[in-house]
Amino acid sequence: MSEINYEIISQYLNGELTGEALAAFEKRMQEDSALAAEVNIYRIIEADQSFFIKNKAEKEKLAGSLEELNKDYFKKNEAKVIGINRWWYAAAAVAAAVVFILILRPFGEETFDNNKLFAYYTKDVEPLSAVERGANEDTLLLQAVNLFNKKDYKKSLPLLKNTLASDSAKTDLLIATGFCFLQINQYDSATKIFNYLVNGNTVYKNKATWYKALTFLKKNKIDSCYKILETLPVDADNIKEARELMKKIKEKS
Amino acid sequence: MSAHQDQQYIEALVDNNNLLLKELYEKFSGKIRNMILKNNGTIADAADIFQDALLDIYQRAKDKGFVLTCPLDAYLYLVCKNKWINKLNKKASSGVTFADTEGYNYGEDVFNNAAILQNQHNRNILLAHKFKELGEGCRELLELSWTGISMMEVAKKLQNSYSYIKKKKSECMGKLIALVKKSPEFANLQW
Hints:
heterodimer, A: mainly alpha, Serine Threonine Protein Phosphatase 5, Tetratricopeptide repeat, 13 helices, 73% helix, B: mainly alpha, globular
């Protein structure tokens, strides 16, 4: 490679070379791969640095937005912070509840009803699908699924149990079975299934945690319910409902 | 290849759309936090790595029109994982071990996209570093020229002739390229 003339590279990249000069330079690049590589590096550095400078303000603005979100989603010393502030939360919650009861609910309506809350959080359960696993012929399973989706948990349960007996690896059916147990107040059987899934590594891990919390809610063991809710990761499907429920529990206590 | 539905989050980065960014955090930050915490990191490390990855993705999307064709989930995880392993490697005297907290099967495009992003990031760092080694005159001239104004205006601002400034700029670029090429990191980068 002959000595590099960066001025010509610059002219070439700015479209200032024309006619014979342009043809000659392009021919040289074809023959001299080192020159071609140098042109490429020149182009990339210019492009990268121009981008960097032109978008500096915008990037900083985005970084600012992300930092704000970091405060919410990557909380430092999470436990400690809550510990210090718990009294304030509690005091604020009590004050809010008092205001709520005195001003908005003058007739002393029940503000925390575990059964109502349970019904509320279980009214939109994700329907089961039999088609996904290509089991259209499996009438027993189809029946179980249909009954489950119609919220007839009592009738769906024995059919689900039967299907599971032949294939316990179907975790979607397993969690549905646990849910049926929960609905008909067979808490021990329900909890056994949810614990199994909570400790496992399936896609239903978080869902099972949520249901386990709802089991405690239905049993009116609110403290345990709260503790389980606290273990849900922020990316859990039910995190919004969980936070809402935690808030309600906090307000109650 | 058509865009993945998670492309909306890439656009949210470009548009600084707070509502969607919040959703992005809601959906994806937990897995990254777990991964860093399980691998000798702190919550602050997790926040840094996550933010750094998002800023890299922003740059690629804004500058190169990057369109996401794979789920953001696995992509973000791999990008953050690579960043964290690099950071651990810098601290450790011997090789680091890494425990995966998610069992992703990365497709080829996830791997390629993560590698491109890492290359872009490393190039940025090297360039910023080498730029500082230039003399003040070169730094001022190059920075002005990169703001998008014409070389004529650059010349006016620096109170010099157009032809001198143009010649000087290519000289400065030559110096910067030489510095970059001399660095040990250069051989590991794609250009």
